[in-house]
């Protein structure tokens, strides 16, 4: 599903004009993004939990340089779906896309 | 990160931003979740601009085992819901580490080890004694140490002849070196450390037999304690060291005592890192802010928006004076202590930063930090 289709359906569902829905969704995602970037996780019912994980500094072998490299720590977003959502979608065969 | 905000807090936050009632925000979010779910069901992926993409990924059937009984089972193929953050979100989240780059490791471990014990020695001792200690360090890392104690007594004698008042100090440095070696606690080193202690003892005995005057009495006491009980000595030095360096820093900082604070209100999405970047132009100075607001900020990774914090003012953030560097190191030390209790595996990098900015502070703190971390910090 594309972003525009999402907005169309959402606008229908909440009975708001599309541009209003779009700005509301943008605000929502920017707040989620800000919370995540300040290191806090958030659980959304029926969807799942978004958390931030720090990947530790690590030593890897670079085949290109033929030497070991230190890779700096990195913060990444992790998503774990709620069991509800997981179970519902477990056996949906959607081969298209 | 362990900290989370509740769904309720999220709704409050969104509704205050968008000037909608909490009820409508709540239903909005629930509809959003519904549509994401039906979208996943229909097309297998839902994309949200500037945020990320929810996707279904088909996992093939695979062989597994029941973890309780060890019995072989086949796990049937099933869908997994994955979330792929888009670039904007990835960069926003990774901002604290954004400026760090991969680095090729050039030197081997053995080289690093030789350098390891220098920082504390250089701080506490005079140039002469540190030179002498360096010689000892180089000797220590070679396996066949006991076979050649011959050249060292002469070196030591030279130094003590040129400056008799140096003896006690040199002795202390030696002991401190032992302490730091012992502290490092790495079992790889334990052999080197043991033989090093023995070597020092032999050295001390030879040395005091050769020069049986002024300081013999006290020093031989020290050497006997040296061999019998290390703990007493380290305790003595532990009490000696801080006092000395405190007076040093006090005299140094008395010149420019006035640290001015600036009030700063935290905006949503800001971190200590970004504030330091805005205010000082150098994000690596953020521990200064953290140490100035120790009471208000419990977790340096999480900054509540809207709170007021005090930001110490710096006149020239490119060239920090020594007291400022010390302060920065203190800041990193408090970050280290926090990380030590919350995320012990990463704490060592902050300790390394302490030593980087002010070896003095690292040396002062050496008896209250984890020995493995200390070894790591000194190795760098």
Description:
The complex is a heterodimer of chains A (97) and B (380). Chain A is elongated and about 60 Å long. The longest helix of chain A has 20 residues, at 18-37. Chain A is built from three helices and five strands. Chain A has 97 residues and is α+β, with helices and mostly antiparallel strands. The model of chain B is unreliable at 108-188 and 214-257 (pLDDT under 50). Chain B has 380 residues and is mainly alpha-helical. In chain B, helix 6 runs antiparallel to helix 7 (151-162), helix 13 (286-292) packs across helix 14 (322-342) and helix 15 crosses helix 16 (359-365). Chain B contains 17 helices and nine strands. The interface between A and B is large, with 70 and 77 residues.
In short:
The complex is a heterodimer of chains A (97) and B (380). Chain A has 97 residues and is of the alpha+beta class.
Keywords:
heterodimer; A: alpha+beta; three-stranded antiparallel beta sheet; two-stranded antiparallel ribbon; elongated; B: 380 residues; two-stranded antiparallel sheet; 17 helices; 9 strands; 61% helix
Rounded to the nearest angstrom, the distance between the terminal CA atoms of chain A is: 10 Å
% residues in beta strands of chain B: 5-15%
Q: How many E-type strands of chain B?
A: 9
Strand content of chain A: 25-35%
N/C terminus separation of chain B: 27 Å
Question: How are strands sequenced across the largest beta sheet of chain B?
Answer: 2-3-6
Strand order of the largest sheet of chain A: 1-2-5
Strand tally of chain A is: 5
Q: Gyration radius of chain B, to the nearest Å? A: 29 Å
What's the average pLDDT of chain A? Answer: 87
Biggest beta sheet attributes of chain A: 3 strands, antiparallel
What is the helix fraction of residues of chain B, given as a range?
55-70%
Biggest chain pair interface = A-B, 70 and 77 residues
Helix content of chain A: 40-55%
Question: Which secondary-structure class do the elements of chain A indicate?
Answer: alpha+beta
Q: Please mark out the parts of chain B with pLDDT under 50 across 5 or more consecutive residues, or reply none.
A: 108-188, 214-257
């Amino acid at each position: 599903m594309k972003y525009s289709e999402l907005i169309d359906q959402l606008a229908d569902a909440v009975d708001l004009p599309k541009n209003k829905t779009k700005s509301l969704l943008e605000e929502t995602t920017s707040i989620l993004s800000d919370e995540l970037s300040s290191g806090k996780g958030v659980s959304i019912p029926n969807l799942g939990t978004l958390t931030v994980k720090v990947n530790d500094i690590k030593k890897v072998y670079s085949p290109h340089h033929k030497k070991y490299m230190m890779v700096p720590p990195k913060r990444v977003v992790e998503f774990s779906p709620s069991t509800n959502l997981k179970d519902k979608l477990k056996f949906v065969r959607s081969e298209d896309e | 990160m362990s900290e989370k905000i509740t769904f309720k807090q999220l709704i409050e936050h969104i509704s205050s931003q968008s000037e909608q009632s909490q009820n409508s925000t709540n239903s909005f979010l629930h509809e959003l979740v519904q549509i994401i779910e039906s979208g996943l069901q229909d097309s297998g992926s839902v994309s949200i601009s500037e945020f990320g993409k929810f996707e279904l990924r088909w996992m093939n059937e695979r062989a597994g085992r029941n973890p309780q009984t060890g019995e072989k089972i086949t796990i049937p193929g099933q869908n997994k819901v994955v979330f792929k953050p888009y670039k904007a979100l990835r960069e926003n989240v990774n901002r604290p580490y954004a400026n760090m780059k991969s680095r090729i490791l050039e030197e081997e471990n053995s080289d690093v080890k030789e350098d390891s014990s220098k920082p504390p020695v250089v701080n506490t001792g005079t140039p002469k004694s540190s030179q002498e200690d360096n010689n000892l360090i180089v000797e220590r890392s070679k396996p066949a140490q006991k076979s050649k104690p011959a050249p060292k007594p002469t070196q030591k004698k030279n130094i003590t002849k040129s400056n008799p008042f140096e003896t006690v100090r040199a002795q202390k440095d030696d002991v401190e070196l032992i302490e730091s070696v012992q502290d490092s606690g790495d079992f790889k080193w334990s052999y080197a450390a043991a033989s090093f202690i023995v070597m020092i003892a032999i050295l001390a005995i030879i040395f005091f037999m050769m020069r049986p005057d002024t300081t013999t009495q006290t020093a031989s006491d020290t050497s006997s304690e040296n061999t019998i009980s290390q703990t007493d000595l380290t305790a003595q030095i532990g009490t000696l060291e801080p006092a000395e360096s405190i007076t040093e820093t006090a005299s140094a900082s008395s010149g420019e005592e006035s640290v001015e604070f600036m009030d700063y209100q935290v905006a949503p999405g800001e971190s200590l890192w970004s504030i330091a970047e805005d205010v000082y132009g150098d994000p690596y100075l953020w521990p200064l802010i953290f140490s100035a607001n120790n009471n208000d900020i419990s977790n340096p990774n999480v900054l509540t928006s809207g709170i007021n914090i005090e930001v110490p003012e710096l006149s020239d953030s490119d060239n920090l004076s020594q007291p400022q560097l010390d302060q920065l190191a203190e800041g990193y030390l408090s970050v280290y202590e926090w990380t030590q209790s919350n995320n012990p595996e990463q704490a060592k990098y902050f300790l390394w930063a302490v030593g980087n900015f002010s070896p003095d502070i690292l040396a002062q703190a050496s008896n209250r930090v984890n020995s493995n971390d200390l070894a790591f910090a000194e190795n760098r």
